[in-house]
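Please check this today:
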Amino acid sequence: MIMGHPEQLLIALILESVLGYPAWLLARIGHPVMWAGRMIGAMDRHWNRAPHARTAGVLTAIALVMTSGAAGLLIERLAGGWGGDMAIILIATSGLAQRSLHDHVAAVVRPLAGGELAAARSALSAIVGRDTAVLDIPGMAAAATETLAESFCDGIVAPAFWFLVLGLPGLFAFKAISTADSMIGHLDARYRQFGWASARLDDCLNWLPARLAGGLICLAGGGGWRILVRDAGNHLSPNAGWPESAMAGVLGVRLGGGAAYDGEWIARETLGDGPAPGVADLTRAMSVYRRACVLLLLTVGGVAWLL
């Protein structure tokens, strides 16, 4: 049963793609992801203790879902009339990242195209977890392309999906768990146990959206299905391989491969055939991304029309 209102999501997607998250609002009250981050940081400091780190991590994930879901439910219960609908729409835009993702990747493309590698590395380091200091132009283009494809899922398709299914409670709960996965869902000594539950729950919540995102990218790019089917399972993540392999197939390039994270080399399989991507391929990826966002918008519009 769909509990969210597709027409609200449709308007939220349009508004966010045009306006993004206002800088003045960010300066005044921060961002909901920051609020969740503070809660996660506090639980990490106080609960992440051996030998019960995994149990504490499970409780952390439960607390995040319950707290964020309750906050979304409270807002929906208090919102009434057209003013309440508009409030829900504006709040929903904070969980979407079409504009911000586009702008962050564009900030890499511009200096990279101009040969300003230091500036490109600086911009890239803001959106990827891997070490950027040693990356050459193809390495930076590949990293930005992979992030663009993966974030199309977990920053746009997945939050839109959970808003459509469960309204603001679903959107808030997803964003809280997604934030937890990025903060504590690592395999290092500190978080292997404590972040386990958040990472696994994030995998579950992204499972269907990742496959939808891969399909939208292939439709937007007019191909890539063979690589999507062949290589989606090659990724270390059960979900990220779907949008990334779709983008690799659409562009006819090779993504993935080993990369360094915090000085540690992580072996990864490759996705796709062909050469490593260049600046022109990253520019093409941006075009595919924009078309995929339009397709998502049309899909939500179709759901709104049918319902």
